[in-house]
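Before any further analysis, we paired sequence with structure tokens, yielding the entry below:
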Amino acid sequence: MMMTRHFMRILPIAACLSVSLTLGVALWPAAALAQPSRAEAMQALAGVEWTLETDAITALGDGAEQTLMAIADDDSLLNVYRIRALMALKLFQTSDVADYLESRLAVWSNDALSRRTMESFSAGFAQTYPQRVASALTPYLANGNPHLRITAARALRSLNTAQARVAVNAYLSDRAQSWEIEALQNE
């Protein structure tokens, strides 16, 4: 008898769950559904011959940029996933993503992450924040790493600002007859 009463209390809940799952209705708040799962994002970033596919990344839905930022920041992941997450962030042209990419330029100790951050920042925000991109990337023209200098120069050269033109011209004049000039011209 006691078991029957307990079962009778659970039965309406179980029936409600069954109906809601059958109809595809979630019982938890919509905010929990807003951000794609890490597994979904990792699947969109996976593959041996991966290329950035806009449809696959935007299909992740609302909050995808937050998930991609978390992946890029996760030191426990292989850098290939972190780099791909950074590359995908250029598709999300929001001020939050711009702030994130700009802040990460100074933080990364890994040159590959720094280069991809520069590329995503300039590709994603050259039209909306050209001065901001130029200001953030100009100091990298004097960096000790030639690969970072070349990446910054390429990004700055694509901007249509006086600051970027002056910075790239100064960089080029300092490196006459350098392999960096060839690398910049052979992109």
Summary: The chain has one domain: 47-185. The chain has a mean pLDDT of 83. The chain has twelve helices and no strands. The two ends are 80 Å apart (CA to CA).
